[in-house]
Amino acid sequence: MSLPPCPACQSPYSYEDQGRLVCPECAHEWMPGESAADEHAAVVDANGNTLADGDTVSVIKDLKLKGGGGVVKVGTKVKNIRLVDGDHNIDCKVDGLGALKLKSEFVKKV
Ligand SMILES: [Zn+2]
Fold it and tell me: For residue 95, how far is its CA from the centre of ligand 1 (angstroms)?
């Protein structure tokens, strides 16, 4: 199998269905040959709202930082986010914790 991973959630379990590619994990559908690199996959929050650079979001669950760096508490407001590629798709600064990366599925737009 050499199907590309899902451009929305990077799941490797995409399959082909009637000429389209389908992701069983997030239900995203796309056309083969559509390049994930050209089209910036939309970054959406926990409610499915599209996020953009400069947005303010609030964290919806306690997030432990790797390496014992502390915890981002639920309800923490994060201003001026920057969208980046990768598993953790939000680059930001949190008061008291400094620069860190979050997953968009654990935040909501405020
Ligand atoms: Zn997916």
Answer: 32
- Model confidence band, residue 87 (pLDDT cutoffs 50, 70, 90): confident
**Cα 5 to Cα 22: distance, rounded to the nearest angstrom:** 10
Range list of H helices, the chain: none
Segment 23-66, tens digit of pLDDT: 999 999 988 775 555 455 689 999 999 999 999 999 999 999 87
Residues having C-beta closer than 5 Å to ion ligand 1: 6, 8-9, 11, 23, 25-26, 28
Contact yes or no for 84/90 (Cβ under 8 A):
yes
